[in-house]
Amino acid sequence: MNAFDWKATYDALHDEAPDYGNRPVIGITANFGDRGCELAEGYFRSVLEAGGIPFVIPPFEDGEALIATLEHLDGILFSGGGDLNPLYVGEEPSPALHSINPRRDLPELLLARMAYDRQIPMLGICRGIQLLAAALDGSVLQDIAEAMPGAALLKHSQDLPREYASHHVALRPGSLIHRIMQTERLAVNSFHHQAVNLPGPHLTVSATAPDGVIEAVESCENKNILGVQWHPECFILRGDRSMMPLFHWLVDSARSFRETLDIHRRILTIDSHCDTPMLFGQGIRFGRRDPKALVDLHKMTEGHLDASIMVAYLPQGERDEESLKAATRKADGILTGIEKMVEENAQAAAIARTPDELFRLKEEGKKAIMKGIENGYAIGRDLSRVEHFRSRGVVYMTLCHNGDNDICDSARGNGEHGGLSAFGREVVREMNRVGMMVDLSHAAESTFWDALQVSRTPIFCSHSSCRALCDHPRNLTDEQMAALARTGGVMQVTFYNGFLRTDGQATVEDAVRHINHAVSVMGIEHVGIGTDFDGDGGVPGIAHAGEVTNLTRLLREAGYNEEQLKLLWGGNLLRLMRLVQSGQPGESQTQS
Fold first, then answer.
1. Could you tell me if 355 and 578 are in contact, meaning their C-beta atoms sit under 8 angstroms apart?
2. What is the pTM of this model?
3. Following DSSP, what letter does each residue of 192-236 receive, concatenated?
4. Domain for residue 18, yes or no?
5. What's the number of CA atoms in the CB half-sphere (13 Å) around residue 26?
6. Does any domain span residue 3?
7. What is the C-alpha to C-alpha distance for residues 368 and 338, in angstroms, rounded to an integer?
8. Both 176 and 322 in a single domain?
């Protein structure tokens, strides 16, 4: 074929039926020099060879355009270049600072932070690792020699051609980069005088040079974020593919990210327990990305979370007549606050009362908010309050909180009634009648067994985890979980640190472990997710509504397929909700 016959190439590309494959789009930040926007060849060649589609991102500061760009990217590669401007991280320039690029810093800091919010995989190279650290609350050494006087430093700014290795780095065993490169000692090239100083709260050091200079950082929250101080893209220029695993990791992570988002677009995702109304007195704004709230419209959008059941939480108080009336007034006030919050954001959110309304709102592109009550203390001793709250759209009521009330005994109570009280049995029957789900999170085991026997419709636990993995009285035993499944109920695994593990800081891996255990005991048809966000729920990796897709990605890696994820993320809860709202009994209740 004539090398200049471009039309033959055009024809060859269309000889067969279109099949463009599953190639993720990798955005590569471009440098900016005297000739304008520019990009070294090794970056896009490495991405292409790894199976990605390179997309060059020029430096621009239009925030809305940056967000729109992120919507079309599956991964980001932050390329090398000049020094970071220390003013962006609250420092003044040191005498050893080299040339900075005033066009790149702001847009790339914004890109990195917004990509982090959206769980987009990121690889930072040379300047890119320093950019990641700065964007994610770490710090950078303006000059290694100046910052480490007296140290026996290597020559980090080399004179040899960039496609050759210049020194070795040690990879931390068990780290992400160790798993990628399959070695603990790696020959790399080095062309820098700045380096990461502190990785910050979101990253951890995973490789160092013999002189102690940080050479790689990665996410400490089980996210696909990696930064390296050397230039892996240069090796391919002389046919050396030893660094290609890094680019394959980025492209594979980007493909997984896109597939995860595609699943979220097809299924309905609902969080069964959220305490954001507890923050109403702190002046939060649901329509902005509020730093005080774990759930707001921006985070729900970033995490592709479709719906949340926000509860009117009442701490257990005194039980005299005046206190009980005050509790009812407080519950009504919180429910009104939820309605007002949604009304103020009517262009993007709406109240839902039924599963059908949830699906309609998803089709309309709106977030759905349902209402719940946490603690039957809200009804006092007045049975008519159940129907009152149901008429206000409350879909479930947690029978108690941390303390016995007039309905039942709490897991953190004194065993006042030995389970459900006589009044509590009436309450359960009335909830059945009006179509309100019975929630047994926080309930004592005695209450659990009584309610299972009394309720004509299946019950659920809106935010509980597995006692077999974390011995806490708020968690369910395997026996309780099995009984809940037999009666058609659902357990919503929650992410409160103390309910996931008894020692140390829990992470998203612990959340996956509890989901796996619940599924193994109950079956996939009886498990869901109730985060307890803004009620002290949330752990690294699933810390707020914006990180919902990160949990889905890890569940996919654990082996769950789309149909199973559909059940976990709301399918099981919606089945139960339909059944309860229609007044139909569960299987075992029919037999009794």
1. yes
2. 0.94
3. -S-EEEE--TTEEEEEE-TTS-EEEEEESSS-SEEEESS-GGGGG
4. no
5. 32
6. no
7. 12
8. no
Read off the pLDDT of each residue in 88-110 and give the average, rounded to a whole number: 91
Calculate what percentage of the chain has a pLDDT beyond 90: 88
Tell me the C-alpha to C-alpha distance, in Å, between residue 545 and each of 131, 222, 232, 289, 475. Answer: 25, 16, 35, 11, 23
What residue numbers bound the domain in which 154 lies?
A: 25-259
Are the C-beta atoms of 296 and 274 separated by less than 8 Å?
A: no
Token duo for residue 113? 């932070």
CA 346 and chain centroid, separation: 25
Cβ within 8 Å of residue 93, ≥6 positions away: 85, 86, 87, 142
Task: State the average pLDDT over residues 150-160.
Answer: 86
CA-based nearest residue to 58, from 30, 34, 98: 30
Helix/strand/coil for 100:
strand
* pLDDT reported for residue 99: 86
Nearest CA-CA partner of 519 in 529, 509, 534 = 529
Is 90 exceeded by the pLDDT of residue 569? yes
Same domain flag for 248 and 311 = no
Encoded amino acid at 74, one letter: D
What is the DSSP secondary-structure string of 25-56? Answer: EEEEEPEEETTEEE--HHHHHHHHHTT-EEEE
Number of domains in the chain: 2
Q: What angle do CA 74, 76, 80 make, to 5 degrees?
A: 165
pLDDT average, residue stretch 532-536 = 96
- Are 559 and 527 a contacting pair, CB within 8 Å? no
- How confident is the model over 228-276, as pLDDT tens digits? 999 999 999 999 999 999 999 999 999 999 999 999 999 999 999 999 9
**Residue 454 structure tokens:** 């009394």
Same domain, 307 and 428: yes
